[in-house]
Amino acid sequence: MITATKTSKTTSIPYNHQSWEMRRKLCRFLLNTIAFPWLVKLDRVEGIENIPAQGSAILLINHIAFVDPIVVLHIMPRNIVPLAKIEVYEYPIVGIFPRIWGVIPVRRNEVDRIAISKAIDVLNAGEIILVAPEGTRNDELQRGREGIAYLASRTGSPVIPVALENTCGYPTYPFSKRWRQEGASVRIGRPFCYSVEYANARMKLLRKMTDEAMYILAKMLPENRRGVYSDLSEATMETIKWCE
User: Are the C-beta atoms of 191 and 60 separated by less than 8 Å?
Assistant: First the structure.
């Protein structure tokens, strides 16, 4: 979703966790009790125990449908802060939701230093962010952008892979043809971290670190979703260790 940058300095207003949390609790209540049950059919959730009860983390997702971040937000035991393309703020009606929630807007296809700084602030506050490293929706995995590795290595936050399937066709109303088919499924994988010696890794290493993370996600997906990471024999874990 974001491209790595050489600086994490920010000129924005300091992030205040408590000021956002009340808004998010209200939005979460409305989402979980009113909106979500009428928009998305959810069949399976696996691995919820891999979400830490406290502390920062980065959710690494494959992005195949518009509702993917909403599905993940709905099932999480904690509030999360998604990163999303800045255009979502301009969507009619639904664009209000990311503004109220405090979704981090990202300018795609450029080094968005403001988005990176905001994401680091949220992680340093002990919260969870959601990142789709491909930068856009795709049926199959595309090359992930280095921002995921930059954020994880600079903050020491664990990365939690989240594999999504069968979210296409939502949102839609109940009793439609789509609701009679298989519903969305979410599989949450084991958290991993980058080794401390890569805390200040630069572009060449960040590329390797990102690909190693994407291969972990690819292993959790069906073969037809793996895309450029289809050849699992090329997967390595030289920069990664499993979190305890």
Answer: no
